Amino acid sequence: LKALSMESLYNSMENPLLYVLSQMEANGILLDIIKLKELGTIIKKECDELSEKIFTLSGEEFNLNSSQQLSKILFEKRHLPTGKKTQGGFSTDTATLEELVATGDEIIPLILRYRTYSKLQSTYVSSLFSLVGKDKRLHTQFLQIGTATGRLSSRNPNLQNIPIRTEEGRLIRTAFVPKKGFVFLSADYAQIELVILAHLSGD
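Above: the chain's sequence. Below: its structure in C-alpha cell form.
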C-alpha cells in the first residue's frame, strides 16, 4: 500500500515537477551586472574605510580576517574579557563580538560592520559574478530531494540564501531584476498564514 502511494506521488507530483524545474533552471534569473559592479565598488570602499578606522584605533595594521591576529588585538592589547577558547586562542566569532559590544569599546561595532560588508563581497558579489552566464542570467540548480522537510533547495548559486535581514544585504537583492514586462512575486504561507490555511481547509 505504501509503495503504491509513493508511486502515485511520483507520477502525480514529483515527475511532472521535473519538467517545471528544468524550464526554470534553463530560464534562469536576470542579474543587473552594472548594478552589481556598483554595489561591489560601494562595499569595497566601505571595507577599506572601516579597516582604516580599526587600524587607527588598534594602533597597528593586521589581517582582519585572521582570528589569531584579531584575538591578540582584542584580548592581549585591549584587555577585553575573553570568551570561549579554541585551538588558535580565544574565540573571535560573531557571537563573542556581539557580547563584547556591551564593553563599550568602539572597535567592536566597527569589526562587526566590517565582517558584514566583507561577507557580502566574498559570498555574494564576487561569487555571483563568477556564476552568471553569457546571457547575464544565473542558472541555479533546484533539488527536489535536497532537504529532509521536502521543500525545494537551490545550489550553484543558492538563490534562497540571498540576504534580506539587513539594509546592506537587501542591496544585493536589488541587482536581481525581472525582464521587461514581468514582475517578481513573493508568496509565503509560513507561520501565521499556514495556521490560517489549515483552519480554512480543515486540515
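The mean pLDDT is 88.
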